[in-house]
Amino acid sequence: MSKECIMLLSAILVVIGWFINSYLNRKHEVFKKRLDYRLLMLESYKEVGETLEKLLNNGDQSLADEFVLKLEKAQVNFLLYGTKNEIKLINKITQYASKNEHIKMKDESAKLMTLVRDNLRSELGLESI
Q1: In degrees to the nearest 10, what's the CA dihedral of 29, 32, 35, 40?
Q2: pLDDT above 90 coverage of the chain, percent
Q3: Which of 15, 65, 83, 84 has the highest local Cβ count within 10 Å?
Q4: Alpha-carbon torsion angle 92, 73, 125, 111, nearest 10
């Protein structure tokens, strides 16, 4: 093999490696950004869950308006960044909230938190608990 062929082959391998590395870096950046948005989504629902617990345990109706506002914000985040099953559950929770069916809402909320936790752990490559 001539010296020119070796140099040409080396240059081709370097360019191919550069493209593969760029692709993998882009894929990793998209993963990190998606995870940031999903964590934002989870944080918004965490606030809903905390307010829901206070509302149900204390019976303090002054929290009802705050709960509705937080639920609406969380629903928008889930509609944007959630999976199909997460969206279905947040819509059920919203329906139960509008009908004041607190027990069903709390049950669906627990299901949603479990689903989100399992999905995030799976995305992060962590063992399911």
Answers
A1: -100
A2: 37
A3: 83
A4: -20
- Stronger pLDDT, 62 or 92, i.e. the higher one: 92
- pLDDT (mean) for 107-120: 87
Q: What is the pTM of this model?
A: 0.73
Tokens of 96: 């139960």
Above pLDDT 70, what percent of the chain?
98
CB 97 within 8 A of CB 85: no
Question: In this structure, what token pair is assigned to residue 85?
Answer: 């099953």
d(CA 45, CA 110): 11
How much is the pLDDT for 103? 83
Tokens of 78: 């889930």
Phi-psi map region of 83: left, alpha, beta (phi>0 left; psi -120 to 50 alpha) = beta
Helix (H) or strand (E) holding 45: helix 3-58
d(CA 19, CA 121): 30
Coil, helix or strand for 35? Answer: helix
